[in-house]
Amino acid sequence: MPSEFILYHNNRCSKSRAALSLLEERGIQAKVVRYLDTPPDLATLEELFRKLGLESVRDMMRVKDDLYKELALDNPELDNHALLQAIAEHPALLERPILADADRAAIGRPTENLETLLPSS
């Protein structure tokens, strides 16, 4: 049975558009979540973090974004839960694009990272 893919997408982002194009080129249907319009809740973000297999939530955040600095999220005392809460409140902090299936996820920077989730062609 083929995997059900979800692409967390921002159409204004070239990397995100490239990820969508990659899926279309490969004939892969994905549920596209425009996460700025429909922000993921905390439970969804926790699941994404788990699927990404990261140690720090910062690795799935736009740490160079002005908002990250304005909210002082570089404070080393903030734990992963606090950082996930910040993304839930400010979805623009979420790195993009992220492709997820039932078990795993990958951040599409570079787009080639997504290949690890896709069936071989």
From TrEMBL:
<dbReference type="Pfam" id="PF03960">
    <property type="entry name" value="ArsC"/>
</dbReference>
<dbReference type="InterPro" id="IPR036249">
    <property type="entry name" value="Thioredoxin-like_sf"/>
</dbReference>
<dbReference type="GO" id="GO:0008794">
    <property type="term" value="F:arsenate reductase (glutaredoxin) activity"/>
</dbReference>
<dbReference type="InterPro" id="IPR006659">
    <property type="entry name" value="Arsenate_reductase"/>
</dbReference>
<comment type="similarity">
    <text>Belongs to the ArsC family.</text>
</comment>
<keyword id="KW-0560">Oxidoreductase</keyword>
<dbReference type="InterPro" id="IPR006660">
    <property type="entry name" value="Arsenate_reductase-like"/>
</dbReference>
<protein>
    <recommendedName>
        <fullName>Arsenate reductase</fullName>
        <ecNumber>1.20.4.1</ecNumber>
    </recommendedName>
</protein>
